[in-house]
Amino acid sequence: MRQLLNYKWPIAIVLIAITIVLFFLSPNLSQQAENAGTFQLPASSDSKLAADILEEAGAGDETISVVFTYEDPIDEQTQKKISSIAKDIEQEDSSVTKVLDPFESDETAEQLVSEDNKTVLLPITVDGTNDEVNELANRIRQDVISEDTTAYVTGEAIINHDVNESAQNGLEKTELITVVLIFVLLFAVFRSITTPFIPLIAVGVTYLLSQSIVAFLIDWFGFPVSNYTQIFLVAILFGIGTDYCILLLSRYKEELMQGHNVEDAIVNTYNTAGRTLIISGLAVFIGFSAIGFAEFPIFKSAVGVAVGIAVLMVVLFTLVPFFMALLKDKLFWPSKTSISHKDSKLWSAFGRFSINKPILSMVIVAIIMVPLLFTYNDQLSFNTVNEIGQDYESVKGLDAIEEGFGKGDSLPIKVIIQQDKEIVTEEYLPYIETISKEIEKNKNVDSVRSITRPAGDIIDELYVDSQLSQVGDGLNEASNGINDVQDGLTEVQKGLQDFNGQIPSNENSGGLEETVNGLGQINDQLGSISQSLQQTQNINRASQQLGQVQQQLGQIQQGLSEASSEAGRASELSGGISQLSEGIGSSIDGLKEINNGLKDAADLVSEMGKSQALHDTSVFIPNGTLENKDFEPAIERYAFDKRKAVMLEVILEDDPYSTEAINSVQEIKDIVSRTMNGTPLEDATVAYSGVSSINNDLSDISTSDFTRTVIIMLVGLFVILTILFRSMIMPIVMIGSLLLTYYTSMAISELIFIDLMGYDGIVWAVPFFGFVMLIALGVDYSIFLLDRFKEEASIGVNEAMHHSMAKMGTVIITAAIILAGTFGAMMPSGVLSLMQIATIVITGLLLYGLIVLPLLIPAITVSFGKGIWWPFKQKQSNKS
User: Fold this and answer.
1) What are the φ/ψ torsions at residue 121 (nearest 5 degrees)?
2) Which residues cross the membrane (predicted)?
3) What SS3 state is found at 52?
4) 875: burial class by Cβ within 10 Å (0-12, 13-18, 19+)?
5) How far apart, in whole angstroms, are the C-alpha atoms of residue 459 and residue 466?
6) Residue 763 gets which letter from DSSP?
7) 2-24+163-384+697-869 — its CATH code?
8) How distant, in Å, are the alpha carbons of 433, 463, 490 from that of 618?
9) d(CA 423, CA 495)
10) Residue 795 CB neighbours (<10 A)
């Protein structure tokens, strides 16, 4: 330290110069956070896989919606106005790839107009970045939608942008409130106008330098970043940095009051409090570095705080001693004395009680904290909308959709199925329909939209029972048609008999008699064919027999034509025979039409017999069906990647953000996997998209990350504390007390936000960040106390603990209040997750500073006696 003091001016100048240069040269950290996105899922997650599939296939366009709401059912004029707005939006920007007019067909109106005709959706597909999507949304609001129209623009990209914007607005408020709060608290502690500026300058330099370094790391090496990065840098660096400054300044004041000169006072301060500082800083650094082992980028983004802690240590050991040496005792001007170095009467009293009555002290802590633990339910919320409240237009749009169409319709789950060859074929679509049908059976699913059910309703004509029913109807019609032909031929036969009676007996009429007899035989055949068709439904045989009958009728018709020619001298007779011949011709045409129908039916039945898909699914799509124009809109909407991939939209009964929806996603995944097993699609790639799917991934990832990071963090802290304190008992006591404090704080937070304020849970990211913050920061205070205890240990365990509590009580309480205050500055941010994290940290710090540290830790420590140093031997400490 003496060497550093010799070069204090060059060091301070270089440090401040580097800070200024990097501040102006570094990338914008706020912009980096927004570009990174609200959700940064690992590549292995289903939602990320779905996004990649859509992006690679050129189908990753963003869909936003304009939601029109009216007090009364819309009329024809309003419909025309909305259609006109749709055209205007389509021409508004080149990034708009499609605008779906709700009134272009009955099918679209059924999907996009609510049942009460008061809410209308106008979906817009945009090919652009999130920034371009939000710019378009702004132009739609300003230029396209008139002021007299109630309409909201909403969508995933817009909601996420609003969350980012809310977080940045919250950061600005937090920064200002934090600086003012720290100044006021420091002024109250040190009774000095000068003193508060030292921590603020030191921490300010730390924050600016850390922010610049983190921004460069993000730019150069892909360092993790999120909205939380900058906010946590502010809260933690200002909070813990101020705490460390208080520790240094308090000890520096003690040294000056003992009559040491300035240089000796600084050296002694860093030999004692500086050692505590290094231990504390190292513990916090390890805590936040452990986050780097998390898989989830949003969690990992808090690892930037570790960079800040490292920078803070440099600043505290360079810039703070510079000000100490520069200002000397004027650092505390105009105060001649300071309460910061006086013994804490409150902690001294706590110490006497907990040291003299350790069992009772532990019982009191248990009575206060254990009942709260039993109220803890680990109830999480994945509702992004709660982060920003109801004042944003995007949220109002969602509310309007939910009111008009149901909660699940606003943000459906998208099931993506992709394979290496074309999937939109008669062979594969029956399996897609079966998947849709099985998903819809789930009690939490309202409907499923896909190629085979574009409006969400089952198309009965695709199912074999309906098709066979149609075939049966066709056979009945064929049988009726044969009967009609029989009736016609009977009339012809009767007419021929009449004509045969008019021919003189001396003329040859044998030809007509044969014709009459032939028609009689054919009628008998037709009756037999009709009866056989109804009984056996042997379509092929009936078709063959009808073909033979057609040939016989053709011969008879030819014979009648000859007879008509022979009867030429009797024009009346000739004309009658010609008419009868035409009747036979009509019968032949009728039989031909019936026969063609039977052949089509036979072909259909033959196709059915050969179809493996029909055997597997009871769904059959005849050849040529997909070329039908009626199928084009469904294929265009639900197929992509050159028809090698399809999408199913699953509309849930529940709110897409709810825990029930997240559970439903897992159920749907199980259904799809089970249904595809053993089918031609079993090797296809399946991915899931949509808010509920993303939240399902978040739930899985956050749970596994929390467990892994907690283990790494606690093991790391245990190892470093064991080495530094030369005890395995002390680290266990520290960590155990912090875990007790954390879960109690979580229980209190649930009571506040769920039971009192009515939220559906604690935001999913809060337990992770709350744990890291409280453990990493709370361990500081136990280090402050126990390192002083270690320093005083030569006078005996009980006396050393009481003396340490008296000396460190004010510092710890002051530091806890300041750190709680910096997190309290998050409250006005309006961002729910930040408010909840702040509540956990504030509650935890106050519990730790007022109950656990003064009552529990001393009681446990003195209960162990000299065994507190196990398995090491106690080292004799020499006080300076």
Assistant:
1) -100, 135
2) 7-25, 176-193, 200-222, 228-249, 277-299, 305-327, 359-376, 706-725, 732-756, 762-786, 806-827, 833-857
3) helix
4) exposed
5) 10
6) E
7) 1.20.1640.10
8) 10, 6, 43
9) 60
10) 11
Half-sphere exposure of 366 (CA within 13 A, CB side): 8
* Residue given tokens 């702004």 in the structure block: 138
Domain positions in the chain: 2-24+163-384+697-869, 59-149, 412-460+619-689, 464-611
Exposed, middle or buried: residue 76 (CB in 10 Å: 0-12, 13-18, 19+)? Answer: exposed
Q: How far apart are CA 743 and CA 370, in angstroms?
A: 10
pLDDT beyond 60 at 507: no
Output Rg (C-alpha) for the chain, integer angstroms: 42
On the question of a common fold for 59-149 and 412-460+619-689, the answer reads yes
Does domain 412-460+619-689 sit in CATH 3.30.420.10? Answer: no
Note the pLDDT tens digit of each residue in 792-850: 888 888 998 988 898 888 888 888 888 888 888 888 777 888 899 999 999 999 899 88
Cα separation, 663 vs 659, whole angstroms: 6
Q: Which helix (H) or strand (E) holds 297?
A: helix 297-300
* CB 247 within 8 Å of CB 785: no
Q: Contact 759/833 with Cβ under 8 angstroms?
A: no
Q: How many Cα atoms occupy the beta-carbon half-sphere of 251 within 13 Å?
A: 26
Which tokens is 118 given? 């008061």
What CATH number does domain 59-149 carry, 1.10.150, 3.30.70, 2.40.50, 1.25.40? 3.30.70
CA dihedral 784, 787, 793, 794 (to 10 degrees): -120
Cβ pair 843, 748 in contact under 8 A: yes
Residue by residue, what is the 3-state secondary structure of 783-822? HHHHHHHHHHHHHCHHHHHHHHHHHHHHHHHHHHHHHHHH
Whether the ω angle into residue 680 lies within 30 degrees of 0, i.e. cis, is no
DSSP string, 13-48: HHHHHHHHHHHHHS--HHHHHHHH-S----TTSHHH
pLDDT band at 534 (very low <50, low <70, confident <90, very high): low
Please give the Cα distance from 10 to 25 (Å, whole number). Answer: 22
| 3-class SS of residue 127 | coil
CA 469, CA 474: separation in Å to the nearest integer? 9
> What pLDDT, on the 0 to 100 scale, is given for residue 479?
67
Rounded to an integer, the average pLDDT of 609-625 is 80
Residues whose CB is less than 8 angstroms from the CB of residue 634 and which lie 6 or more positions away in sequence, other chains included = 450, 451, 452, 454
Q: In terms of Cα–Cα distance, which of 846, 834, 835 is closest to 302?
A: 834
Query: What's the helix, strand, coil split of the chain in %, to 5?
Result: 75, 5, 20
| Closest by CA position to 399, among listed 651, 690, 655, 160 | 655
Q: Output the six-digit token pair for 650.
A: 């699953």
| Cα(72)–Cα(67) distance, integer angstroms | 15
What is the rounded CA–CA span in Å between residue 199 and residue 507?
Answer: 136
CA distance 865 to 357: 14
Residue 482 tokens read as: 């044969």
What's the CA angle centered on 120, arms 119 and 123, to 5 degrees? 145
Q: Estimate to the nearest angstrom the gap between the alpha carbon of 612 and the chain centroid.
A: 38
The Cα 314–Cα 6 span in angstroms is: 16
Q: How far apart are CA 196 and CA 245, in angstroms?
A: 10
Rounded-to-integer distance, Cα 210 and Cα 207, Å: 5
Residue 328 above 90 pLDDT? no
- Burial per residue of 387-408, b for 16 or more beta-carbon CB atoms within 10 angstroms, e otherwise: bbeeebbbbbbbbbbbbbbbbb
SS3 364: helix
List the alpha helices (DSSP H) in 611-728.
612-617, 632-638, 659-676, 691-725
Q: State the DSSP code for 103.
A: T
